[in-house]
Amino acid sequence: MKQLDKKTFLALWLFNPFISAIYVFRNFKENVHIAPYLLLSFFFGLSFVVSTTGGDSERYAAELVRYHQDSVSLVQVLDEAYGEGGSKLDIYQPFLTWFVSIFTENTKILFSIFAVVFGYFWFKTLIIIRSHINIPLKGIALLTFILLALTNPIWQINGVRMWTAVAVFFYGIVLIHLKKEKKGWFFLVLPVFIHFSLIASLGLYIAYTLLPSKNTTILLIIFIASFFLGQLDLNFVRETFALLPGMIQSKEAYLGEEYVEVLSEKKADHALHFLLAGILQKYIFFSMVIIIYYYGVFKRNLLDKNLKIFFPMALFFLSFSNIASSVPSGGRFAVLSNLILMTIFLLFLNYNVKLTRSINFLLRITMVFVIVFLIRTGMESVGPFFFIGNPILNWLIVDSPIIEFIKSPF
Protein backbone atom coordinates (compact mmCIF):
# COMPACT_ATOMS: atom_id res chain seq x y z
CA MET A 1 0.00 0.00 0.00
CA LYS A 2 0.98 3.63 -0.50
CA GLN A 3 3.18 5.17 2.20
CA LEU A 4 2.18 8.35 3.97
CA ASP A 5 3.19 11.51 2.11
CA LYS A 6 4.45 13.78 4.90
CA LYS A 7 3.88 17.02 3.02
CA THR A 8 0.32 16.04 2.11
CA PHE A 9 -0.40 15.04 5.69
CA LEU A 10 1.01 18.28 7.11
CA ALA A 11 -1.00 20.38 4.64
CA LEU A 12 -4.17 18.47 5.54
CA TRP A 13 -3.38 18.78 9.27
CA LEU A 14 -2.99 22.55 9.03
CA PHE A 15 -6.23 22.81 7.07
CA ASN A 16 -8.30 20.27 9.02
CA PRO A 17 -6.72 17.67 11.34
CA PHE A 18 -9.82 15.46 11.28
CA ILE A 19 -9.41 14.97 7.51
CA SER A 20 -5.69 14.32 8.01
CA ALA A 21 -6.58 11.62 10.56
CA ILE A 22 -8.68 9.82 7.95
CA TYR A 23 -5.74 10.07 5.55
CA VAL A 24 -3.43 8.41 8.13
CA PHE A 25 -5.82 5.76 9.41
CA ARG A 26 -6.80 4.40 6.01
CA ASN A 27 -3.34 2.77 5.80
CA PHE A 28 -2.73 2.37 9.53
CA LYS A 29 -0.51 -0.72 9.21
CA GLU A 30 1.92 1.01 6.86
CA ASN A 31 1.96 4.39 8.64
CA VAL A 32 4.16 3.42 11.59
CA HIS A 33 6.02 6.69 12.21
CA ILE A 34 4.81 8.31 15.41
CA ALA A 35 5.11 11.99 14.39
CA PRO A 36 1.74 12.26 12.54
CA TYR A 37 -0.04 10.64 15.48
CA LEU A 38 1.56 13.09 17.90
CA LEU A 39 0.29 16.00 15.79
CA LEU A 40 -3.19 14.46 15.88
CA SER A 41 -2.88 14.04 19.65
CA PHE A 42 -1.77 17.65 20.04
CA PHE A 43 -4.82 18.84 18.12
CA PHE A 44 -7.08 16.69 20.26
CA GLY A 45 -5.66 18.27 23.41
CA LEU A 46 -6.05 21.71 21.84
CA SER A 47 -9.72 20.91 21.12
CA PHE A 48 -10.39 19.15 24.43
CA VAL A 49 -13.37 20.54 26.34
CA VAL A 50 -12.51 20.78 30.02
CA SER A 51 -15.19 19.38 32.31
CA THR A 52 -17.48 21.82 34.08
CA THR A 53 -19.35 19.17 36.05
CA GLY A 54 -16.75 18.13 38.59
CA GLY A 55 -14.51 15.99 36.38
CA ASP A 56 -10.81 15.61 37.13
CA SER A 57 -9.91 17.86 34.20
CA GLU A 58 -11.75 20.75 35.89
CA ARG A 59 -9.49 20.36 38.91
CA TYR A 60 -6.34 20.18 36.78
CA ALA A 61 -7.35 23.37 34.96
CA ALA A 62 -8.04 25.15 38.26
CA GLU A 63 -4.65 24.04 39.60
CA LEU A 64 -2.89 25.46 36.54
CA VAL A 65 -4.58 28.85 36.97
CA ARG A 66 -3.80 28.94 40.70
CA TYR A 67 -0.18 27.93 40.22
CA HIS A 68 0.30 30.62 37.57
CA GLN A 69 -1.54 33.47 39.29
CA ASP A 70 0.01 32.79 42.71
CA SER A 71 3.47 32.04 41.25
CA VAL A 72 3.49 28.76 43.16
CA SER A 73 6.99 27.29 43.41
CA LEU A 74 7.92 23.66 42.82
CA VAL A 75 8.76 23.36 46.52
CA GLN A 76 5.21 24.43 47.39
CA VAL A 77 3.74 21.97 44.87
CA LEU A 78 5.79 19.13 46.32
CA ASP A 79 4.86 20.16 49.85
CA GLU A 80 1.15 20.11 48.94
CA ALA A 81 1.55 16.69 47.40
CA TYR A 82 3.96 14.97 49.76
CA GLY A 83 4.13 17.09 52.88
CA GLU A 84 2.18 16.47 56.06
CA GLY A 85 -1.46 16.11 55.11
CA GLY A 86 -0.60 15.65 51.43
CA SER A 87 -2.59 12.98 49.64
CA LYS A 88 -0.78 12.44 46.33
CA LEU A 89 1.60 9.59 45.65
CA ASP A 90 2.41 10.44 42.05
CA ILE A 91 4.39 13.27 40.51
CA TYR A 92 3.49 13.36 36.80
CA GLN A 93 0.41 15.58 36.80
CA PRO A 94 1.44 17.99 39.61
CA PHE A 95 4.92 18.53 38.14
CA LEU A 96 3.71 18.98 34.55
CA THR A 97 0.95 21.35 35.65
CA TRP A 98 3.47 23.39 37.63
CA PHE A 99 5.94 23.46 34.74
CA VAL A 100 3.31 24.77 32.31
CA SER A 101 2.16 27.32 34.91
CA ILE A 102 5.60 28.96 34.76
CA PHE A 103 4.74 30.17 31.26
CA THR A 104 0.95 30.37 31.08
CA GLU A 105 -2.41 29.68 32.66
CA ASN A 106 -3.85 28.62 29.28
CA THR A 107 -5.41 25.20 29.80
CA LYS A 108 -5.22 24.43 26.06
CA ILE A 109 -1.43 24.13 26.38
CA LEU A 110 -1.66 21.88 29.43
CA PHE A 111 -4.14 19.48 27.85
CA SER A 112 -2.26 19.49 24.54
CA ILE A 113 0.79 18.22 26.42
CA PHE A 114 -1.32 15.70 28.33
CA ALA A 115 -2.72 14.48 24.99
CA VAL A 116 0.69 14.22 23.29
CA VAL A 117 2.08 12.09 26.15
CA PHE A 118 -1.03 9.91 26.21
CA GLY A 119 -1.13 9.70 22.41
CA TYR A 120 2.48 8.56 22.20
CA PHE A 121 1.80 5.43 24.26
CA TRP A 122 -1.71 4.88 22.85
CA PHE A 123 -0.66 5.00 19.21
CA LYS A 124 2.68 3.21 19.69
CA THR A 125 0.86 0.31 21.33
CA LEU A 126 -1.78 0.13 18.60
CA ILE A 127 0.92 0.23 15.89
CA ILE A 128 2.77 -2.69 17.48
CA ILE A 129 -0.37 -4.78 17.88
CA ARG A 130 -1.49 -4.00 14.32
CA SER A 131 1.86 -5.23 13.01
CA HIS A 132 1.11 -8.65 14.52
CA ILE A 133 -2.30 -9.00 12.87
CA ASN A 134 -1.73 -11.04 9.72
CA ILE A 135 -5.30 -11.25 8.48
CA PRO A 136 -7.27 -8.48 6.74
CA LEU A 137 -8.67 -6.06 9.29
CA LYS A 138 -12.38 -6.53 8.69
CA GLY A 139 -15.41 -8.08 10.36
CA ILE A 140 -14.79 -9.30 13.93
CA ALA A 141 -11.09 -8.42 13.68
CA LEU A 142 -11.85 -4.81 12.76
CA LEU A 143 -14.47 -4.44 15.48
CA THR A 144 -12.12 -5.94 18.07
CA PHE A 145 -9.31 -3.58 17.05
CA ILE A 146 -11.62 -0.56 17.26
CA LEU A 147 -12.89 -1.75 20.65
CA LEU A 148 -9.28 -2.16 21.79
CA ALA A 149 -8.51 1.42 20.73
CA LEU A 150 -11.61 2.78 22.48
CA THR A 151 -11.19 0.88 25.75
CA ASN A 152 -8.64 3.45 26.95
CA PRO A 153 -8.95 6.24 24.37
CA ILE A 154 -7.26 9.61 24.25
CA TRP A 155 -10.24 11.50 25.71
CA GLN A 156 -9.39 9.75 28.96
CA ILE A 157 -7.06 12.69 29.60
CA ASN A 158 -10.13 13.94 31.46
CA GLY A 159 -8.69 11.69 34.19
CA VAL A 160 -5.13 11.95 32.95
CA ARG A 161 -3.35 10.36 35.90
CA MET A 162 -5.06 6.97 36.01
CA TRP A 163 -5.52 6.46 32.31
CA THR A 164 -2.09 7.65 31.20
CA ALA A 165 -0.65 5.25 33.77
CA VAL A 166 -2.71 2.39 32.31
CA ALA A 167 -1.62 3.31 28.77
CA VAL A 168 2.06 3.30 29.79
CA PHE A 169 1.74 0.00 31.67
CA PHE A 170 0.01 -1.70 28.76
CA TYR A 171 2.71 -0.38 26.42
CA GLY A 172 5.29 -2.03 28.69
CA ILE A 173 3.49 -5.37 28.50
CA VAL A 174 3.29 -5.16 24.71
CA LEU A 175 7.00 -4.31 24.48
CA ILE A 176 7.97 -7.28 26.66
CA HIS A 177 5.72 -9.91 25.10
CA LEU A 178 5.23 -8.86 21.47
CA LYS A 179 8.51 -7.07 20.72
CA LYS A 180 10.54 -9.14 23.20
CA GLU A 181 12.21 -6.00 24.57
CA LYS A 182 13.30 -6.02 28.20
CA LYS A 183 13.10 -2.23 28.36
CA GLY A 184 9.36 -2.81 28.71
CA TRP A 185 10.02 -3.31 32.42
CA PHE A 186 10.84 0.37 32.69
CA PHE A 187 7.34 1.14 31.43
CA LEU A 188 5.85 -1.19 34.04
CA VAL A 189 7.51 0.75 36.86
CA LEU A 190 7.04 4.26 35.42
CA PRO A 191 3.20 4.28 35.81
CA VAL A 192 3.55 4.11 39.60
CA PHE A 193 4.78 7.71 39.41
CA ILE A 194 1.82 8.68 37.23
CA HIS A 195 -0.90 7.08 39.38
CA PHE A 196 -0.25 5.32 42.68
CA SER A 197 -2.75 2.48 42.03
CA LEU A 198 -0.61 0.98 39.26
CA ILE A 199 1.62 -0.45 41.97
CA ALA A 200 -1.10 -3.10 42.28
CA SER A 201 -0.78 -3.91 38.57
CA LEU A 202 3.00 -4.08 38.86
CA GLY A 203 2.72 -6.39 41.85
CA LEU A 204 0.19 -8.51 40.02
CA TYR A 205 2.45 -8.82 36.97
CA ILE A 206 5.44 -9.80 39.12
CA ALA A 207 3.27 -12.34 40.96
CA TYR A 208 2.20 -13.80 37.62
CA THR A 209 5.79 -14.15 36.40
CA LEU A 210 6.68 -15.96 39.66
CA LEU A 211 3.82 -18.45 39.46
CA PRO A 212 5.39 -21.93 39.51
CA SER A 213 2.59 -23.23 37.31
CA LYS A 214 0.50 -21.35 34.77
CA ASN A 215 -2.07 -24.04 34.09
CA THR A 216 -4.62 -22.45 31.77
CA THR A 217 -7.52 -24.66 32.85
CA ILE A 218 -7.02 -23.87 36.54
CA LEU A 219 -6.76 -20.16 35.76
CA LEU A 220 -9.93 -20.38 33.67
CA ILE A 221 -11.82 -21.95 36.59
CA ILE A 222 -10.60 -19.17 38.89
CA PHE A 223 -11.65 -16.57 36.29
CA ILE A 224 -15.17 -18.03 35.93
CA ALA A 225 -15.57 -18.24 39.72
CA SER A 226 -14.45 -14.62 40.11
CA PHE A 227 -16.71 -13.53 37.24
CA PHE A 228 -19.86 -14.83 38.93
CA LEU A 229 -18.92 -14.92 42.60
CA GLY A 230 -15.90 -12.70 43.20
CA GLN A 231 -16.51 -10.12 45.91
CA LEU A 232 -14.28 -8.44 48.48
CA ASP A 233 -15.36 -7.58 52.00
CA LEU A 234 -14.96 -3.79 52.11
CA ASN A 235 -14.35 -3.84 55.87
CA PHE A 236 -11.51 -6.33 55.33
CA VAL A 237 -9.94 -4.00 52.77
CA ARG A 238 -10.22 -1.03 55.15
CA GLU A 239 -8.53 -3.03 57.93
CA THR A 240 -5.73 -3.99 55.53
CA PHE A 241 -5.19 -0.32 54.64
CA ALA A 242 -4.55 0.43 58.32
CA LEU A 243 -1.42 -1.72 58.11
CA LEU A 244 0.05 0.17 55.17
CA PRO A 245 2.42 3.22 55.21
CA GLY A 246 0.81 6.58 56.01
CA MET A 247 1.16 7.96 52.50
CA ILE A 248 -0.84 5.03 51.10
CA GLN A 249 -3.37 5.23 53.93
CA SER A 250 -4.19 8.73 52.67
CA LYS A 251 -6.06 7.02 49.85
CA GLU A 252 -8.42 5.25 52.24
CA ALA A 253 -11.02 7.89 51.35
CA TYR A 254 -11.66 5.77 48.24
CA LEU A 255 -13.06 3.12 50.59
CA GLY A 256 -15.16 5.46 52.72
CA GLU A 257 -18.93 5.24 52.99
CA GLU A 258 -19.36 8.72 51.51
CA TYR A 259 -17.33 7.81 48.43
CA VAL A 260 -19.27 4.57 48.02
CA GLU A 261 -22.52 6.53 48.24
CA VAL A 262 -21.36 9.09 45.65
CA LEU A 263 -20.46 6.34 43.17
CA SER A 264 -23.77 4.60 43.79
CA GLU A 265 -25.66 7.82 43.09
CA LYS A 266 -23.72 8.39 39.86
CA LYS A 267 -24.49 4.84 38.75
CA ALA A 268 -28.17 5.32 39.51
CA ASP A 269 -28.21 8.51 37.44
CA HIS A 270 -26.83 6.76 34.35
CA ALA A 271 -29.23 6.24 31.48
CA LEU A 272 -30.20 2.75 30.38
CA HIS A 273 -27.68 2.70 27.52
CA PHE A 274 -24.84 3.31 30.00
CA LEU A 275 -25.85 0.29 32.04
CA LEU A 276 -26.52 -1.86 28.98
CA ALA A 277 -23.14 -1.03 27.43
CA GLY A 278 -21.39 -2.02 30.66
CA ILE A 279 -23.20 -5.36 30.80
CA LEU A 280 -22.57 -6.08 27.12
CA GLN A 281 -18.87 -5.26 27.46
CA LYS A 282 -18.60 -7.64 30.37
CA TYR A 283 -20.13 -10.51 28.41
CA ILE A 284 -18.21 -9.70 25.21
CA PHE A 285 -14.96 -10.22 27.12
CA PHE A 286 -16.32 -13.34 28.84
CA SER A 287 -17.20 -14.75 25.42
CA MET A 288 -13.70 -13.99 24.11
CA VAL A 289 -12.21 -15.97 26.99
CA ILE A 290 -14.42 -18.99 26.34
CA ILE A 291 -13.81 -18.89 22.57
CA ILE A 292 -10.03 -18.70 22.97
CA TYR A 293 -10.04 -21.51 25.53
CA TYR A 294 -12.30 -23.77 23.45
CA TYR A 295 -10.34 -23.47 20.22
CA GLY A 296 -6.88 -22.81 21.62
CA VAL A 297 -6.71 -25.11 24.64
CA PHE A 298 -9.58 -27.61 24.60
CA LYS A 299 -9.27 -28.40 20.87
CA ARG A 300 -5.50 -27.75 20.96
CA ASN A 301 -5.55 -26.01 17.59
CA LEU A 302 -3.41 -23.04 18.54
CA LEU A 303 0.27 -23.42 19.29
CA ASP A 304 1.33 -19.78 19.01
CA LYS A 305 3.91 -18.87 21.67
CA ASN A 306 2.42 -15.42 22.23
CA LEU A 307 -0.99 -16.93 22.91
CA LYS A 308 0.46 -19.44 25.36
CA ILE A 309 2.03 -16.57 27.34
CA PHE A 310 -0.65 -13.93 26.95
CA PHE A 311 -3.78 -16.00 27.60
CA PRO A 312 -2.89 -17.25 31.12
CA MET A 313 -1.76 -13.71 31.95
CA ALA A 314 -5.10 -12.33 30.82
CA LEU A 315 -6.97 -14.86 32.96
CA PHE A 316 -4.81 -13.91 35.95
CA PHE A 317 -5.44 -10.16 35.49
CA LEU A 318 -9.14 -10.65 34.69
CA SER A 319 -9.68 -12.67 37.88
CA PHE A 320 -8.11 -9.89 39.93
CA SER A 321 -10.17 -7.16 38.24
CA ASN A 322 -13.38 -9.17 38.74
CA ILE A 323 -12.68 -9.29 42.48
CA ALA A 324 -11.44 -5.68 42.65
CA SER A 325 -14.61 -4.44 40.94
CA SER A 326 -16.49 -4.88 44.23
CA VAL A 327 -14.33 -2.10 45.74
CA PRO A 328 -15.18 1.54 44.86
CA SER A 329 -13.23 2.48 41.71
CA GLY A 330 -11.77 -1.04 41.63
CA GLY A 331 -13.50 -1.64 38.32
CA ARG A 332 -10.89 0.64 36.74
CA PHE A 333 -8.47 -2.30 36.82
CA ALA A 334 -10.71 -4.08 34.33
CA VAL A 335 -9.51 -1.67 31.62
CA LEU A 336 -5.97 -3.06 31.73
CA SER A 337 -7.23 -6.65 31.88
CA ASN A 338 -9.54 -6.09 28.92
CA LEU A 339 -6.73 -4.52 26.87
CA ILE A 340 -4.61 -7.62 27.42
CA LEU A 341 -7.52 -9.91 26.55
CA MET A 342 -8.39 -8.13 23.31
CA THR A 343 -4.75 -8.25 22.22
CA ILE A 344 -4.84 -12.04 22.65
CA PHE A 345 -8.15 -12.28 20.83
CA LEU A 346 -6.67 -10.43 17.85
CA LEU A 347 -3.71 -12.84 17.82
CA PHE A 348 -6.19 -15.70 18.04
CA LEU A 349 -8.09 -14.38 15.00
CA ASN A 350 -4.87 -14.70 12.98
CA TYR A 351 -5.71 -18.41 12.77
CA ASN A 352 -8.89 -17.71 10.79
CA VAL A 353 -10.92 -19.87 13.18
CA LYS A 354 -14.46 -20.23 11.85
CA LEU A 355 -16.92 -19.16 14.54
CA THR A 356 -20.50 -20.34 14.27
CA ARG A 357 -22.87 -17.96 12.50
CA SER A 358 -24.85 -17.23 15.68
CA ILE A 359 -21.72 -16.44 17.76
CA ASN A 360 -20.35 -14.29 14.96
CA PHE A 361 -23.61 -12.35 14.70
CA LEU A 362 -23.98 -11.85 18.46
CA LEU A 363 -20.39 -10.66 18.83
CA ARG A 364 -20.73 -8.21 15.96
CA ILE A 365 -24.03 -6.69 17.07
CA THR A 366 -22.91 -6.29 20.71
CA MET A 367 -19.53 -4.88 19.69
CA VAL A 368 -21.16 -2.33 17.39
CA PHE A 369 -23.44 -1.17 20.22
CA VAL A 370 -20.54 -0.82 22.68
CA ILE A 371 -18.35 0.97 20.11
CA VAL A 372 -21.12 3.47 19.35
CA PHE A 373 -21.57 4.02 23.09
CA LEU A 374 -17.83 4.60 23.62
CA ILE A 375 -17.70 7.08 20.74
CA ARG A 376 -20.75 8.80 22.19
CA THR A 377 -18.85 9.08 25.50
CA GLY A 378 -15.95 10.69 23.66
CA MET A 379 -18.31 13.31 22.28
CA GLU A 380 -18.54 14.72 25.81
CA SER A 381 -14.91 15.85 25.51
CA VAL A 382 -14.87 17.57 22.12
CA GLY A 383 -16.97 20.17 20.35
CA PRO A 384 -18.02 20.66 16.72
CA PHE A 385 -14.77 22.47 15.93
CA PHE A 386 -12.83 19.25 16.57
CA PHE A 387 -14.30 18.09 13.26
CA ILE A 388 -14.42 21.34 11.30
CA GLY A 389 -11.66 23.42 12.88
CA ASN A 390 -7.89 23.61 12.59
CA PRO A 391 -4.97 24.35 14.97
CA ILE A 392 -5.20 28.12 14.52
CA LEU A 393 -8.98 28.38 14.82
CA ASN A 394 -9.23 25.99 17.76
CA TRP A 395 -6.54 27.93 19.60
CA LEU A 396 -8.79 31.00 19.54
CA ILE A 397 -12.20 29.55 20.38
CA VAL A 398 -13.78 27.95 23.43
CA ASP A 399 -15.89 25.02 22.26
CA SER A 400 -18.80 23.20 23.91
CA PRO A 401 -19.31 19.41 24.00
CA ILE A 402 -20.87 18.16 20.79
CA ILE A 403 -22.89 15.65 22.80
CA GLU A 404 -25.14 18.53 23.84
CA PHE A 405 -26.30 18.69 20.22
CA ILE A 406 -26.56 14.96 19.45
CA LYS A 407 -27.41 13.21 22.73
CA SER A 408 -31.18 13.29 22.26
CA PRO A 409 -31.29 10.14 20.07
CA PHE A 410 -29.58 8.22 22.87
Considering the chains and any ligands shown, give keywords for the structure.
410 residues; mainly alpha; 2 domains; 0% strand; globular
Topology:
Layout: H1 6-15, H2 17-25, H3 35-47, H4 56-69, H5 74-82, H6 92-101, H7 107-131, H8 139-151, H9 160-177, H10 186-189, H11 198-210, H12 216-229, H13 234-241, H14 246-249, H15 257-269, H16 272-298, H17 305-324, H18 333-349, H19 357-378, H20 385-388, H21 391-396, H22 403-406
- Gross morphology: globular
**Strand segment tally:** 0
Helical percentage? 55-70%
Rg over C-alpha atoms, rounded to the nearest angstrom? 22 Å
Question: What is the makeup of the main sheet?
Answer: none
Overall description:
The protein has 410 residues and is an all-alpha fold. The chain has two domains: 1-131 and 382-410, no CATH class; 137-378, no CATH class. Helices cover 68% and strands 0% of the residues. It contains 22 helices and no strands. Helix 16 packs across helix 19. The two termini are 38 Å apart.
